[in-house]
Structure formats: structure tokens, C-alpha cells
Amino acid sequence: MRVNLYGNVANTMYMLAKYLRLKGIEARLIISREDAARESRYSPFWEDPELGDLPEWVHCVESIHLFHYWMPQGKELVHQLADCDIVQVSGLGPVWASRTGNPFVFFASGGDFNVIPLMKTGTVKQRMWTYLQRRALHRADLVLYGPWQEGAAIELRLGNGRYFPPFPIDAQKYRPTSAQTRKMIRGQIGGELILFHPTRQIHRYENPVPGVINFPKVNDRLIRAFATFLNETDIDARLVLVRVGPHVGQACYLISKLGIESQVIWLEAVEKEVLVDYYGAADIIFDQFSGIKKLGLSLVGREAMSCGRPLVTFFDLEGNREYYEDPPPLVSASTEDEIGAAIRRLAQCPEEREDLGRRAREWVFKTHHWEVAIDRYIAIYEEILTRNV
To answer: What would the DSSP string read from start to end of 99-147?
Structure first.
């Protein structure tokens, strides 16, 4: 079986291609030269910085824009994508995959499914992308999306959609940090209790698109809850944030206003290899607090749990019962009060933190480890190819 993957949002297609190849599938990632650059967060180097060069199965093309739809660059991309048995895409990949004549699968990564195809206003360019993406999704052999995106599937009136299988993660790579590395990082950060929040700073959308699901991280709730915690306790705590996202400036202003600058540490965007060590050095990991119905785990959440650390994030248990046979062991929180309660509870009980982290890693191995999870994607390809014979 030959599989071409395109639309490397958050390195998802790179990781799928890598795991498929480990299972003996002839998978190839097609990526723009811009995204393939070492400094890009969508680059394979970001996920695997130890790479000397791109693997031979990663094929670079020029960046593709809307006007290329009718031009040779667009036709060349379609030609490259068509050289396989089945195509899997994210982002705006369906627009190009739908022109190959090959069976293709769409993997929803976020706005490519619950924003772009649902926009009813915007510039001529935006409306054109909306039209092309919406049409392409209906032409897909299968559309894979998360439970929280079910409303978008209903709005789009898709008859070719289903929930995507748990996304594979390398639980050997995302592992507990060594005692020596943990001690070194904790010494650099300082403090008795370390809270790590690696999620992008997206407090809320100031101009949400009417009629579509917007997905803010609502990071400001954590910052306020942390400030309240500091005022209520004599524990010497640190909050570690990553300087990524459109609302970093707002976060800095809020931190200054609350008078907690000395307890907040900012990291620049770091490669995954470094991120793993910070996961392991922290006492508690925090992700997002959006409160969206049926919302499950993000990539950050899965990575943190795989590293054996307790996770505090919003997770809709009822909305995910049919998705996960066994719910993930985590602390769900959305409001400022809930986040504060989670901090106080876990800060006061290191035994619970260790137990929660241990069970989290066991759960990831059972549910998301690539050797188990990738077989579900292979089964989908085989199902579609059998159907198209």
C-alpha cells in the first residue's frame, strides 16, 4: 500500500507517515519548503531535531496559494499527490486531493474543518477557500473529526464522516525525565512547586466567526488562578509559560497587573526534545480551559500524560464516553475557581500527583501509543481501498 500525506498541521502528517513506515507501509509526506525549514514549527526537525537531513520519504514542494489552483504549481502538487494508492490530508489539502482521482481521507485538525468551510462572510479569497474546502470535503472518501467537531459535521451535512481514531504518539519518546535532568531544570526554574503551561496563548477570540466553533485556550484563567493561589499559600511556586500565540502581550500585561512577574517564567518556543524534559521536570501540566462541549485531549495533553505528569485541562467526560472506552485519568477544570481548586488539591498532595501521572502514562500506552493506534489508521485505508476496487 502506498500512502501520500499532505497538510502537515502541527506535524500530524509527518508523525503518521513515520509510524506507517515503521509498520511497513510505503508512506510519503509532501510538505512545502517553507514548512520544511528547521525554524518552522510545522517542520519534521521540530518534532525530531536529531535529524541531520530530511528523510528520503519527505518530498518538498513550493508553497501553494489560492491563485495556484489554475496554475502549473497547483497541477504539479496534484500530480505529486496522485502517485499513490490513497491520500490523507489536513489543512486545505482536500482542495488538492479531490483533484487527484484517488481515494482520499481528510483528518480535521481544527479550523480547517470547523471554521474555513463554514464561513459565511469574508474577503473574496476567503469565500473562495470556503467554497473549495466545503466542496472537497463532500468529495472525500472519509472525513475524520473529533467529537467536539460534530456540530460542524452536521452543519456541513456530511454523509462521509466519523470520529477519528485516537492519534498515535510515541510513548517511548514522550517519557518520564531522568532524575538528573529533572533536578537540573528545576534548579534553573527555582521554586518548590512548578506548574507548566506549554499551550499557545489564545485567551479568547475578539472577532469570532459567526456560526462556527472557535477554540480559545482561555489561558488568562490559569494566570488569575495562579495569582490567587500565591496569595493564599506560602508555597514557593513558579508558573512556566511558552512565548507562543497571539495573546502573549496580553498575558504579560495581566501578569504585571497581578504583581506576579517574579513567579512566572517565560520560555521561548522549544523543540520537542527539550519540551519532553520540561514536561518531566514540572509537578503539574496545564493545557486549555475552553469548556467546549465534547472536547477531548489535545496533542499537549497526550504528550504530558505520556511523560507521566498529572494533567489539568478541560475534558468533557460525558461527551467523550462513546469515543474513549476508558476515560483518561486527569483533572478536568474550566473556570478560574475550578483551576484554582485543582492547583490547591495537587499542590498539597504529592502522592496524588505521582499516582495520577503513573496512571496517565499507563493510559497513553494502552490507548495512544503508536504501535497500537496506527493499526486503526491502516484499517481505515484498507477499508476504503477495498470499497474502491
So the answer is: TSSS-EEEE--SHHHHTGGG--SS-HHHHHHHHHHHHHHHHSSEEEE-G
